[in-house]
TrEMBL record:
One of its GO terms (molecular function) is tubulin binding. GO terms for cellular component: cytoplasm; prefoldin complex. CDD domains: Prefoldin_3. This is Prefoldin alpha-like protein. Residues 90-124 form a coiled coil. It comes from Neocallimastix californiae. The keyword Coiled coil applies. It holds the Pfam family Prefoldin. Keywords: Chaperone, Coiled coil.
Length: 145
């Protein structure tokens, strides 16, 4: 039973670590997108075009000339893109960042709890093993007498 519980805790820990890694990668992207939306909002009433570099890939950027706009397109994931006004996009991104940061904090707390439980289970496993070894020695000693 202890081994089964220990395995469950280890599985939960690896699952939480993966979620933590994903969120730690997602939050900076959301913040970068929010910064761009805020920049577009600041240039909405301007007559001059915005010249910017945008990311095509991790290491590839392209230059674009953007006319001042009141709408943006946001990737929602899995080949879904929707058009939002800049204010709606700002609100949506702020909510997503807030939710992601809360989730990250919850995951960190859960990981701390899991680590404590895993340590406790490891100590218990060692105690049970040592008790078993001691019992076998006693039986072996009794049977040899």
């Amino acid at each position: 039973k202890i081994n089964a519980l220990y395995s469950k805790y280890k599985f939960m820990e690896s699952s939480h670590l993966q979620r933590k890694k994903n969120l730690e990668g997602k939050i900076p992207d959301l913040k970068k997108t929010l910064d761009m939306v805020l920049y577009l909002i600041s240039k909405e009433n301007s007559d001059e075009d915005i010249i910017t570099n945008y990311e095509l890939n991790d290491t590839i950027y392209a230059t674009a000339k953007i006319k001042p706009t009141k709408t943006v397109y946001l990737w929602l994931g899995v080949n879904v893109m929707l058009e939002y006004t800049t204010e709606e996009a700002k609100t949506l991104l702020e909510e997503k960042i807030s939710t992601a940061e809360k989730s990250l904090n919850n995951i960190k707390e859960d990981l701390e709890f899991l680590r404590n439980q895993i340590t406790t289970m490891e100590v218990n496993l060692a105690r049970v093993y040592n008790w078993d070894v001691k019992q076998r020695r006693l039986k072996k000693k009794e049977s040899s007498i």
